Amino acid sequence: MQRSLKEYFTITLKGMAMGAADVVPGVSGGTIAFITGIYQELINTISGIDFSLIQVWRESGTKAMWRKANGSFLLALLTGILISILTLMRLTNYLLDNHPVMVWSFFFGLIVASVWFVAKQIPKWNFKIVLALIIGAALALYISSLPPLNVQSNNWFLFLAGALAVCAMILPGISGAFILVLLGAYKTITEAAQNLDFKTLAIVAVGAVFGLLSFSRILKWLFNNYSNITLAVLTGFIAGSLNKIWPWKEVLETAKYGEKIVVIKEISVLPSNFDGDPHLLAAIILMIVGFLLILFLERIATQKPITEDASTNENL
Question: pTM of the predicted model, to two decimals?
Answer without folding.
Answer: 0.72
